[in-house]
Design goal:
Nuclear Transport Factor 2, Chain: A, 2 helices, globular
Length: 123
Amino acid sequence: MIRGVKTLWLVMLGLLLWQPLAQADFFSNDTGFASINISKLPSEARDTFHLIKQGGPFPFPRDGVVFGNRERQLPKRPRGYYHEYTVRTPGARNRGARRIVCGAVPECYYTDDHYQTFKRIRE
């Protein structure tokens, strides 16, 4: 009987301790993000997204590097969770401003203004 009470007490304590964590930003969903269907992305972004899903090869040396989320525009995750990929910009002499940033695929976001705003990519 005492053992059952101790177990129940530990379960209740665990639930009480878990509640603040469950409400923290780390576990929040990203329903506040605008989304964009893959078919509505520029063709260059669709090409990049397909390369990401197949694991490369990527045309830019910095594709796949860790994205630090310093702007804090994306949901809070541990460092190393997000990776960025260049979306070709016609006429640009450098990598341009367009990127796809992914956590665990298919959690990917598109930005066309160099990380100022993001849209969640929907397939």
